[in-house]
Amino acid sequence: MKRPILLHPDPRLKKIAEPVPDLSDALRALADDMLETMYDAPGIGLAAPQVGQGVRLIVLDCIKEEGEAPRPLVMFNPKIVAASDETSSYEEGCLSIPDQYGEVTRPSEVTVRWIDRDGAERSEDMAGLWSTCVQHEIDHLDGTLFIDHLKPLRRQMITRKMVKLKRELARG
């Protein structure tokens, strides 16, 4: 089931998400809903707070090549356990901040540990777009948006545009 994506500014996007103590069918269903919502948007990552759920759950799939098999990842309690000193910059966007982009510099490689949808602990080294995406989504779990990495003036400009967009959407 597709879920509505919260738009910035929304106080729920700034809250720190709670760790998932135990996997339940409801949490697996939430993960499935989030994947459906992300693919439909379309996006390459989505965090539970973006659909109004304050739990440490992210989904991502950075496969964008035509004809390449999708690789959906469901991560409960994801944690970056190592990061490279080397950095890379990407023009990031966000489903909660549509049509707004900004250059964000992050570690170019990270090692992530998480619990998968079957309850198994997993770990993976990620680079390139996967590394950027997983860091962006984990930021969401900590109440941080990509615009928080931008200069204050740029962040304020994007926030003003989003307030205006939300007003227009509310009017219908």
Task: Write a structural description.
- This protein has helices at 25-40, 128-141, 152-171; strands at 45-47, 57-60, 73-83, 87-94, 97-107, 109-115, 121-127.
- Strands 1-2-3-6-7 form a five-stranded antiparallel beta sheet.
- The mean pLDDT is 96.
- The chain starts with 24 loop residues before the first helix and ends with a helix.
- It is built from three helices and seven strands.
- The protein is α+β, with helices and mostly antiparallel strands.
- The protein has a single domain, classed as Alpha-Beta Complex (Peptide Deformylase).
- A hairpin with a 2-residue loop joins strand 4 (87-94) and strand 5.
- It is globular.
Radius of gyration: 16 Å
The average pLDDT value, as a whole number, equals 96
**Fraction in helix:** 25-40%
Which strands sit side by side, in order, in the main sheet?
1-2-3-6-7
Order of helices and strands: HEEEEEEEHH
Using the coordinates shown, work out and report the CATH topology.
Peptide Deformylase
